[in-house]
């Protein structure tokens, strides 16, 4: 009987533990799960907001990077152009006096060639006009001689 009595007490203890556990889960089902569901929804909204912010930031940085690359390319191209323009001047500085004089004479000769080419083209135009005038005069002379011969 004592043994049965101790088994009953032990069973009642286990029953009270299980009853407390059942009460906890019923409380969670009725109240806690709704709180947790609200927390989950808020966290999902936060995740969506973070993803949107990340997408916007990524797009902004991508555009900024593209603009920066284009600006760098433009600056490098401008610098290369400037270096290419200054390279002959820098090279001339390191030449001896005779070479510098030859370069200056060469530049002067190029200018003279342009002047002479213009004169040649002007003379060709003058020659063309004179030839046309001569042809016209010769044609008139021949016409007048033909008329004299007919008379």
Nutshell version of this structure?
This is CCD83 protein. The protein is mainly α. The chain is built from 2 helices and no strands.
Model description:
97% of the residues lie in helices and 0% in strands. It has helices at residues 2-93, 97-150.
Mean pLDDT: 91
The strand count comes to 0
- Which structural class should the secondary elements be placed in? mainly alpha
Q: How far apart lie the N and C ends?
A: 178 Å
Roughly how much helix do the residues carry, as a percent range? Answer: over 70%
Q: How would a crystallographer describe the biggest sheet? A: none
The gyration radius over C-alpha positions equals 53 Å
Spans where pLDDT lies below 50 across 5 or more residues:
none
Cα shape = rod-shaped
Order of helices and strands: HH
Strand content: under 5%
Number of alpha- plus pi-helical segments: 2
Please give the domain count.
2
């Amino acid at each position: 009987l004592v043994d049965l009595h101790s088994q009953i007490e032990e069973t009642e203890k286990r029953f009270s533990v299980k009853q407390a556990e059942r009460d906890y889960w019923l409380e969670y089902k009725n109240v806690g799960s709704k709180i947790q569901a609200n927390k989950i929804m808020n966290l999902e909204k936060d995740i969506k907001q973070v993803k949107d912010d990340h997408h916007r930031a990524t797009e902004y940085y991508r555009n900024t990077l593209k603009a920066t690359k284009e600006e760098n390319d433009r600056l490098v191209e401008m610098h290369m152009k400037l270096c290419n323009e200054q390279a002959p001047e820098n090279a001339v500085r390191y030449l001896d006096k005779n070479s510098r004089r030859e370069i200056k004479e060469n530049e002067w000769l190029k200018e003279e060639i342009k002047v002479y080419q213009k004169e040649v083209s002007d003379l060709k135009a003058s020659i063309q006009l004179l030839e046309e005038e001569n042809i016209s005069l010769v044609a008139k002379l021949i016409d007048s001689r033909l008329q004299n011969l007919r008379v």
